[in-house]
């Protein structure tokens, strides 16, 4: 654990993590559930710092079957997923609490939305700086370096922290 920065609270059998336990990763993601031979095995839940969680059945460290629940309570359904797609563009909070009056836009599922630092993008799990190509979480902690594909996707699809004039500009 000292080399990975992780923390383990649980039982050991023959020097291996085994039984019901809590395993805390350096990212503050926590696993609570059954362990066998040093791996997630049996019923267990990953709790993410964002408030979301993944409840799963694990076998030798791999998730066999599970359900992902977002921090707002929305559960991901891989077969019938229609959230915020071409079929229904409402955010989950709009589904639960209704739409806002005409003229008042809801830009994200969080209302009011987070303020994005100038020059950055909100990529869903943190802010992306296209100059450094670094994604930091909403508490300004490093998450990852973006590769070329993620960089292109963020620039193309995510909200940015500045306004641009995109309409007609009359000649003066």
Structure description:
This protein has two helices and eleven strands. The protein has 172 residues and is mainly beta. The protein has a six-stranded antiparallel sheet, with no helix packed on it. A five-stranded antiparallel sheet has the order 10-9-8-7-11, with helices on one face. The protein starts with 6 loop residues before the first strand and ends in a 12-residue tail after the last strand.
Helix/strand order, N-terminal first: EEEEEEHEEEEHE
Terminal CA distance reads 66 Å
Sheet with the most strands: spatial strand order: 1-2-3-4-5-6
- Overall 3D geometry? elongated
Number of strands: 11
The DSSP helix count reads 2
Q: What layout of secondary structure does this protein have?
A:
Elements: E1 7-13, E2 16-24, E3 30-36, E4 39-47, E5 53-59, E6 62-69, H1 92-97, E7 121-122, E8 127-129, E9 134-136, E10 142-145, H2 148-157, E11 159-160
Q: What's this entry about, in short?
A:
This protein has 172 residues and is mainly beta.
What distinguishing features does this structure have?
single chain, mainly beta, 172 residues, 2 helices
